[in-house]
Amino acid sequence: MGRIFKKSAKMLILLLMSVIVVTVTAATYNYMLMEASPINVYSAMVVFENGTDASAAGTSIGTNGTYIKFTSMSGWPNVTRVYENASVIHNTDGSQSFPCQLTVDSFSGSIDSLYIRLFDNSDTYDSTVQVHGTSNSTSFTIAAGEVWRLEWRIRWAATATAGSTASATLSLRITGEGSGE
After folding, report:
1. Gap between the Cα atoms of 90 and 174, Å rounded
2. Whole-angstrom distance, CA of residue 171 vs CA of residue 105
3. DSSP designation for 134
4. Which of 5, 83, 130, 169 is the most exposed place for a label (fewest CB within 10 A)?
Protein backbone atom coordinates (compact mmCIF):
# COMPACT_ATOMS: atom_id res chain seq x y z
CA MET A 1 0.00 0.00 0.00
CA GLY A 2 2.87 2.38 0.81
CA ARG A 3 4.41 1.76 -2.58
CA ILE A 4 1.18 2.68 -4.42
CA PHE A 5 0.91 5.84 -2.29
CA LYS A 6 4.54 6.82 -3.13
CA LYS A 7 3.96 6.26 -6.87
CA SER A 8 0.71 8.23 -6.73
CA ALA A 9 2.40 11.07 -4.81
CA LYS A 10 5.30 11.17 -7.31
CA MET A 11 2.84 11.14 -10.20
CA LEU A 12 0.82 13.96 -8.61
CA ILE A 13 3.96 16.04 -8.03
CA LEU A 14 5.09 15.43 -11.62
CA LEU A 15 1.66 16.45 -12.91
CA LEU A 16 1.64 19.63 -10.79
CA MET A 17 5.15 20.55 -11.99
CA SER A 18 4.15 20.14 -15.64
CA VAL A 19 1.06 22.36 -15.10
CA ILE A 20 3.24 25.03 -13.49
CA VAL A 21 5.77 24.89 -16.34
CA VAL A 22 3.03 25.18 -18.98
CA THR A 23 1.41 28.08 -17.13
CA VAL A 24 4.69 29.98 -16.77
CA THR A 25 5.60 29.33 -20.40
CA ALA A 26 2.20 30.53 -21.63
CA ALA A 27 2.64 33.81 -19.75
CA THR A 28 5.95 34.59 -21.45
CA TYR A 29 5.86 37.23 -24.18
CA ASN A 30 7.85 40.11 -25.61
CA TYR A 31 6.93 43.72 -26.23
CA MET A 32 8.00 45.40 -29.44
CA LEU A 33 7.70 49.13 -30.01
CA MET A 34 5.94 50.85 -32.89
CA GLU A 35 5.84 54.64 -33.05
CA ALA A 36 4.17 57.20 -35.31
CA SER A 37 5.03 60.80 -34.64
CA PRO A 38 3.96 63.31 -35.65
CA ILE A 39 0.56 62.42 -37.08
CA ASN A 40 -0.64 65.62 -38.72
CA VAL A 41 -4.05 66.91 -39.68
CA TYR A 42 -4.81 69.15 -42.64
CA SER A 43 -7.94 70.50 -44.26
CA ALA A 44 -10.28 68.08 -45.99
CA MET A 45 -9.91 68.12 -49.77
CA VAL A 46 -13.44 66.83 -50.48
CA VAL A 47 -16.23 68.46 -48.47
CA PHE A 48 -20.00 68.70 -48.23
CA GLU A 49 -21.54 72.11 -48.91
CA ASN A 50 -25.09 73.47 -48.93
CA GLY A 51 -27.11 73.13 -52.10
CA THR A 52 -29.92 75.42 -53.21
CA ASP A 53 -32.48 73.19 -51.40
CA ALA A 54 -30.47 73.09 -48.16
CA SER A 55 -32.99 75.08 -46.16
CA ALA A 56 -35.97 72.96 -47.26
CA ALA A 57 -34.06 69.74 -46.51
CA GLY A 58 -32.85 70.99 -43.10
CA THR A 59 -29.23 70.60 -44.17
CA SER A 60 -26.67 70.99 -41.41
CA ILE A 61 -22.97 70.70 -42.26
CA GLY A 62 -20.28 69.96 -39.68
CA THR A 63 -17.42 72.35 -38.92
CA ASN A 64 -14.97 70.83 -41.41
CA GLY A 65 -17.45 69.94 -44.15
CA THR A 66 -16.91 66.22 -43.51
CA TYR A 67 -20.32 65.55 -41.92
CA ILE A 68 -23.81 66.37 -43.12
CA LYS A 69 -27.26 65.83 -41.65
CA PHE A 70 -30.73 66.44 -43.10
CA THR A 71 -33.48 67.08 -40.55
CA SER A 72 -36.46 68.40 -42.53
CA MET A 73 -36.96 65.97 -45.41
CA SER A 74 -40.56 64.86 -45.68
CA GLY A 75 -43.23 63.92 -48.18
CA TRP A 76 -46.86 63.09 -48.85
CA PRO A 77 -48.25 59.56 -49.16
CA ASN A 78 -48.07 58.10 -52.68
CA VAL A 79 -46.15 61.13 -54.06
CA THR A 80 -42.45 61.47 -54.96
CA ARG A 81 -40.79 64.39 -53.16
CA VAL A 82 -37.64 65.63 -54.89
CA TYR A 83 -34.91 67.70 -53.27
CA GLU A 84 -32.99 68.58 -56.44
CA ASN A 85 -30.03 70.14 -54.66
CA ALA A 86 -30.06 69.32 -50.94
CA SER A 87 -26.25 69.40 -50.85
CA VAL A 88 -23.16 69.19 -53.01
CA ILE A 89 -19.82 67.42 -52.81
CA HIS A 90 -16.93 69.79 -53.57
CA ASN A 91 -13.35 68.79 -54.40
CA THR A 92 -11.42 71.79 -53.08
CA ASP A 93 -8.04 70.41 -54.18
CA GLY A 94 -6.71 72.40 -57.13
CA SER A 95 -4.81 69.60 -58.81
CA GLN A 96 -5.99 66.11 -57.88
CA SER A 97 -9.00 63.94 -58.68
CA PHE A 98 -10.41 61.64 -56.03
CA PRO A 99 -12.12 58.27 -56.50
CA CYS A 100 -15.21 58.19 -54.27
CA GLN A 101 -17.77 55.61 -53.20
CA LEU A 102 -21.18 56.51 -51.74
CA THR A 103 -22.60 53.58 -49.75
CA VAL A 104 -25.71 52.97 -47.67
CA ASP A 105 -24.73 51.89 -44.15
CA SER A 106 -28.24 51.54 -42.73
CA PHE A 107 -31.88 52.23 -43.54
CA SER A 108 -35.11 51.86 -41.59
CA GLY A 109 -38.68 52.81 -42.42
CA SER A 110 -41.47 51.82 -44.78
CA ILE A 111 -40.79 54.06 -47.74
CA ASP A 112 -41.72 52.81 -51.23
CA SER A 113 -38.56 54.32 -52.71
CA LEU A 114 -35.62 56.45 -51.63
CA TYR A 115 -32.92 57.32 -54.14
CA ILE A 116 -29.92 59.62 -54.15
CA ARG A 117 -28.92 60.65 -57.66
CA LEU A 118 -25.49 62.16 -58.40
CA PHE A 119 -24.95 64.86 -61.02
CA ASP A 120 -21.43 65.78 -62.11
CA ASN A 121 -19.80 69.21 -62.42
CA SER A 122 -21.61 69.93 -65.72
CA ASP A 123 -24.94 68.89 -64.08
CA THR A 124 -25.08 65.67 -66.10
CA TYR A 125 -26.63 62.64 -64.39
CA ASP A 126 -23.93 60.15 -63.29
CA SER A 127 -25.38 57.44 -61.03
CA THR A 128 -27.95 56.48 -58.40
CA VAL A 129 -27.85 54.94 -54.93
CA GLN A 130 -31.03 53.05 -54.03
CA VAL A 131 -31.09 53.69 -50.29
CA HIS A 132 -33.98 51.32 -49.49
CA GLY A 133 -33.07 48.43 -51.79
CA THR A 134 -30.35 46.39 -53.44
CA SER A 135 -28.36 48.96 -55.45
CA ASN A 136 -26.97 50.61 -52.36
CA SER A 137 -23.56 51.82 -53.53
CA THR A 138 -22.08 53.84 -56.38
CA SER A 139 -18.55 54.83 -57.34
CA PHE A 140 -17.44 57.99 -59.10
CA THR A 141 -14.37 60.19 -59.51
CA ILE A 142 -14.56 63.88 -58.66
CA ALA A 143 -11.93 65.93 -60.52
CA ALA A 144 -9.97 68.85 -59.06
CA GLY A 145 -12.21 71.82 -58.28
CA GLU A 146 -15.44 70.06 -59.27
CA VAL A 147 -18.79 70.36 -57.48
CA TRP A 148 -21.23 67.42 -57.70
CA ARG A 149 -24.91 67.79 -56.85
CA LEU A 150 -26.90 65.30 -54.73
CA GLU A 151 -30.59 64.89 -55.54
CA TRP A 152 -32.85 63.05 -53.06
CA ARG A 153 -36.06 61.34 -54.33
CA ILE A 154 -38.40 60.09 -51.60
CA ARG A 155 -41.71 58.27 -52.14
CA TRP A 156 -43.87 57.20 -49.20
CA ALA A 157 -46.33 54.32 -49.54
CA ALA A 158 -49.95 55.19 -50.33
CA THR A 159 -50.87 53.77 -46.92
CA ALA A 160 -48.35 55.92 -44.99
CA THR A 161 -49.89 57.95 -42.22
CA ALA A 162 -48.90 61.31 -40.78
CA GLY A 163 -46.11 60.85 -38.26
CA SER A 164 -44.47 57.92 -40.08
CA THR A 165 -40.68 58.23 -40.19
CA ALA A 166 -37.67 56.72 -41.87
CA SER A 167 -33.94 57.17 -41.45
CA ALA A 168 -30.82 56.44 -43.47
CA THR A 169 -27.10 56.56 -42.83
CA LEU A 170 -24.62 56.68 -45.72
CA SER A 171 -20.86 56.98 -45.95
CA LEU A 172 -18.74 58.70 -48.57
CA ARG A 173 -15.37 57.01 -49.01
CA ILE A 174 -12.70 59.20 -50.62
CA THR A 175 -9.50 57.51 -51.76
CA GLY A 176 -6.25 59.49 -51.84
CA GLU A 177 -4.38 62.08 -49.86
CA GLY A 178 -4.60 65.31 -51.82
CA SER A 179 -2.07 68.10 -51.84
CA GLY A 180 -2.78 69.38 -48.33
CA GLU A 181 -0.15 67.22 -46.64
Report:
1. 12
2. 7
3. S
4. 5
| Spatial contact of 114 and 155, defined as CB atoms under 8 Å apart | yes
Go through the domains of the chain in sequence order and give each one's CATH number. Answer: 46-174 (2.60.40)
C-alpha span between 2 and 86 (Å, rounded): 91
Q: Per-residue pLDDT for the chain (181 aa), expressed as one digit of tens each? A: 677 777 777 777 777 777 666 665 566 678 888 999 988 888 899 999 999 999 999 999 999 999 999 999 999 999 999 999 999 999 999 899 999 999 999 998 888 899 999 999 999 999 999 998 777 999 999 999 999 999 999 999 899 999 999 999 999 999 987 655 5
Give the separation between CA 47 and CA 98, rounded to whole angstroms: 12
